[in-house]
């Protein structure tokens, strides 16, 4: 996701990870507060797939994802929803 690994010290440790829905082609990695990492990406993006993410939890309206043939919503808990990729991708570790 981040080829230069310049921010590896930020995301390669314990942190509260926040996944934010991005527009197609948008990729942003931010550190808005100590121990918080925010990744903005469209989950249909190739880079997200290459991370090996098969399940994720999101907060808010992800109706664009629900229109995708790539994911299924597995549950809804208040404003949070659990999503799963229909076909698992291999992990890169």
Describe, in short, the structure shown.
Helix content is 14%, strand content 40%.
Largest sheet: 3 strands, mixed
What percentage of amino acids are in beta strands? 35-45%
Distance between the termini: 14 Å
pLDDT below 50 for ≥5 consecutive residues: which ranges? none
Helicity level = 10-25%
Please give the order of strands in the largest beta sheet: 1-3-2
Element string (H = helix, E = strand) = HEEEHEHEE
Q: Count of DSSP E strands?
A: 6
Number of helices: 3
Description:
The protein has three helices and six strands. The protein has 93 residues and is mainly beta. A three-stranded mixed beta sheet has the order 1-3-2, with no helix packed on it. A three-stranded antiparallel beta sheet has the order 4-6-5, with no helix packed on it. The longest helix is centred in the middle third of the chain and has 5 residues, at 46-50.
Strand and helix layout:
Elements (H helix, E strand, L loop, with lengths): L7 H4 L4 E6 L5 E7 L2 E6 L4 H5 L4 E5 L3 H4 L4 E7 L2 E6 L8
Parallel strand pairs: 1-3
Antiparallel strand pairs: 2-3, 4-6, 5-6
